[in-house]
Specification:
Blueprint (H helix, E strand, L loop, with lengths): L4 H8 L25 E3 L4 H6 L1 H11 L3 E4 L7 H11 L2 E6 L2 H6 L1 H11 L3 E4 L10 H20 L3 E5 L13 H7 L6 E6 H6 L4 H7 L4 E6 L1 E2 L5 E2 L8 H5 L2 H4 L3 E4 L7 H14 L3
Parallel strand pairs: 1-2, 1-10, 2-3, 3-4, 4-5, 5-6, 6-7, 7-10
Antiparallel strand pairs: 8-9
Helix pairs in contact: 3-4, 4-6, 7-8
């Protein structure tokens, strides 16, 4: 997710202020599969901008059971909660900018509790917000503070990666700073499988280094040329990754495509593939 992320979150978050480990059942025919597939609604932002309720109905019709928000499109938290209930959907997670975490944490928490979120995820730093190692150490301190506030409210804060966190600054990768200088009890991780792979990293290496710290993942695929594509249309071995979910701690799986040519067709193709996936 990288199209003007900060501005998108700031504009869409107008609503501010106004399971046990699961998803991996044994299935007939052998193997396991995902019984609870989620969708990051940023993929359908063009539809969300037009009609949130209609978009959620479409998502439920496709068979998604969970959604992750990236803004509420001028709807109040109470309205969003009602829309979800009417479609039999849950929204365990929401994306919230670093600015909102730093400046409006009380409103973030109030909104999350009203809608029914359990996880608040910081998803993106604009290029101008990045810097050297000291900048990321400051972010680590800020994330710890926000994580403590979330914890006290019964919520969990998480960090969502892209590829830039794996590009060394001052001789160290920002991802290592964020992982090493935040409290695992205060900050969990939402691993983006596309961006991690795009950066030349193996998700399983991070599961081994930080077992139990990954509460969710973004499920998106990469073609041989490195471009993003629908789940199942690329080269990422999801069966291999999902087989390590218990070790990682993953509870939720959110399909996403940052820039789909046809958003509705994209989310349909991805869930059709994941329904058949065994690992």
């Amino acid at each position: 997710m990288q199209m003007n992320r900060r501005n998108f979150l700031m504009a869409a978050a107008a609503g501010f202020g106004a399971a046990a480990l699961g998803g991996l059942p044994a299935l007939a025919g052998g193997g396991r599969g995902l019984d609870r597939i989620g969708l990051q609604l940023y993929t359908l932002r063009s539809l969300m901008e037009k009609d949130v309720a209609k978009t959620l109905a479409f998502v439920a019709e496709l068979g998604y059971r969970e959604v992750e928000f990236a803004g509420y499109f001028d709807h109040t938290p109470v309205e969003i909660k009602a829309m979800l209930a009417s479609e039999g959907l849950t929204a365990p997670s929401t994306h919230v900018s670093m600015t909102h975490l730093n400046e409006h944490i009380d409103a973030v928490i109030e909104t999350a509790l009203t809608v029914g979120h359990r996880y608040v995820v910081m998803p993106w730093l604009e290029p101008e917000e990045r810097g050297g190692a000291d900048v990321y150490r400051i972010y680590a301190e800020q994330l710890n503070r926000a994580g403590e506030a979330c914890r006290k409210a019964g919520l969990t804060l998480a960090y969502h990666n892209h590829a830039f966190e794996f590009e060394a600054v001052d001789g160290i990768e920002p991802y290592d700073i964020l992982m090493g200088e935040t409290d695992p009890g205060l900050l969990k991780i939402q691993l983006d499988l596309y961006w991690t792979t795009k950066a030349g990293r193996d998700p399983l290496d991070y599961f081994a280094r930080y077992p139990g710290r990954f509460v969710s993942c973004h499920v998106k695929d990469m073609r041989a040329d490195g471009e993003m594509t629908e789940v199942g249309g690329g080269t990422i071995d999801f069966a291999r990754i999902f087989a390590a979910s218990e070790k990682a701690g993953i509870r939720h799986y959110f399909v996403e495509h940052d820039e789909p040519a046809d958003a509705a067709a994209s989310v349909r193709a991805s869930i059709e593939y994941l329904r058949k996936l065994r690992f």
